[in-house]
Amino acid sequence: MGMQFSTFYEIIDMGGHGVFVWTAVSVSLLIFLTLIVLPVAEHSRILKNIELTMEFEAQSLRNVDAEK
Fold first, then answer.
1. What is the 3-state secondary structure (H, E, C) of 6-46?
2. Which residue segment(s) compose the domain that 39 sits in?
């Protein structure tokens, strides 16, 4: 089994179909990256929100104890 393409230009051109192939590849990679990045960012945001809520509740408890 030999190489299908002998030059880098032939890889990019894909026999005249390169525009369609590389557009499909680019869109697919963009979708996959979005499916990875957005949940990770949301997870970080939720953890930060939980941390802030816990700090607020701890401060509220300290204030209640100080008033007694």
1. CCHHHHHHHHHCHHHHHHHHHHHHHHHHHHHHHHHHHHHHH
2. 32-68
| Farthest CA pair distance, the chain | 84
Residue 15 forms part of a structural domain: no
Q: How far apart are CA 2 and CA 12, in angstroms?
A: 18
Structural domain count, the chain: 1
Q: Within 10 Å of residue 22's Cβ, how many Cβ atoms? A: 14
> d(Cα 26, Cα 48) in Å, to the nearest integer?
32
Q: Given the structure tokens 């525009």, which residue do they identify? A: 19
Q: How confident is the model at residue 1 (pLDDT cuts 50, 70, 90)?
A: low
Q: Is the pTM of this model over 0.70?
A: no
